[in-house]
Amino acid sequence: MKIFVLGAGVQGTVFAVRLTKAGHQVTLVASPGRMEDLRVSGARIQNELTSVAATLALPVVPSLPSDRSADLCLVTVRREQIELVLPCLAQATGIGRFVFLVNHANGSEDLFRVLGKRRVVVAFPGVAGSLENGIVRFIEIPQQPTAIESDAYDVAAILREAGLRVSRVNDMDAWLCRHAVFITAIAGALYETDCDPHRLAQDRAAVRRFVRGVQEGWRALDRRHTAPAPFALRAILCWVPLNISVGYWSKLLETRGELYFARHAPFEMAALASDVRVLAGEREAPVLHELLAAIDRYKNAQNNGQ
User: Fold this and answer.
1) Which positions ≥6 away from 130 have C-beta within 8 Å?
2) In angstroms, what CA-CA distances link 248 with 133, 138, 200, 204?
3) Rounded to whole angstroms, how far apart are CA atoms 146 and 165?
4) Any alpha helices (H) in 2-127, and if so which ranges?
5) What is the value of pTM for the model shown?
6) Under 8 Å CB-to-CB from 225, ≥6 apart: which residues?
7) pLDDT tens over the chain, length 306 residues
8) Which helix (H) or strand (E) holds 234?
9) For 13, phi and psi rounded to 5 degrees?
10) Which of 43, 133, 159, 160 is spaced 20 to 30 A from 192 at the CA atom?
11) 129-132, long-range: CB within 8 Å, 24+ apart, which pairs?
């Protein structure tokens, strides 16, 4: 298949390399600085848990061509960039479908309106990591395979054939809303501890606030009749005794926090926090809103160079 990957950060590079190794014709769309690095050194990825590395020379272009055809375009931009890239996607009429691997919780109606519902596949990557000195250092999150809407069985098969774990989901917009509450709550807790997962892990009161924040947000979603979160996540966050949940997350933050959570971009988290505020009001989710405020403070500090 011919595939474009829009965005050459962690997810875009990992998916591009995996799909190329599976035999697909993949072209990366990258920013000027990243494009130069890719052309000189290739697309370089390394699994942080297994140390398995790969380097591939991939075609790379500065923008999505409007005059070229392709079967798929994987969209791996950040939440705050979705509105910026939509006009470019709309002009790419030769692309069959767009697979949005993006952290958004404001629904997919705008995507459907601009591109047509049949051309949009909503998904979320099960990959986390960072781009360091041109090398994508990543992990595949065992507890969270790449999620994709259940009707896109052919796209799910393509990703599985590329070696990616995939979970098909009946209601991806609901899944993304639940995930947004979870990830902004934990991001806020991390930002309150200077993005230090080890420090957060040792502060059980702070971990308890994160769990409470998720519970508040999810109860607000329950009242909106939003489909529930995955079973295992509901169990450890909502059903087990609070001290067991706190212990679980403290241990995970201590052992895997740097890989799983600490590298979220503050500007993306701030955009996602705005989505979450619409889903859960301050009166019904006061602890969650405190954590969302921590995201804004951290973003503003980063913006001011502090």
Assistant:
1) 10, 136, 137, 138, 263
2) 33, 23, 13, 11
3) 6
4) 10-21, 32-41, 82-91, 109-115
5) 0.94
6) none
7) 999 999 999 999 999 999 999 999 999 999 999 999 999 999 999 999 899 999 999 999 999 999 999 999 999 999 999 999 999 999 999 999 999 999 899 999 999 999 999 999 999 999 998 899 999 999 999 889 999 999 999 999 999 999 999 999 999 999 999 999 999 999 999 999 988 999 999 999 999 999 999 999 999 999 999 999 999 999 999 999 999 999 999 999 998 887 777 566 889 999 999 999 999 999 999 999 999 999 999 999 887 765
8) helix 231-234
9) -70, -45
10) 133
11) 129/10, 129/14, 129/48, 129/259, 129/263, 130/10, 130/263, 131/9, 131/10, 131/13
Quote the tokens at residue 38: 């890719």
CATH T-level assignment (fold) for domain 2-170: Rossmann fold (3.40.50)
**Tokens 């798929």 sit at which residue?**
72
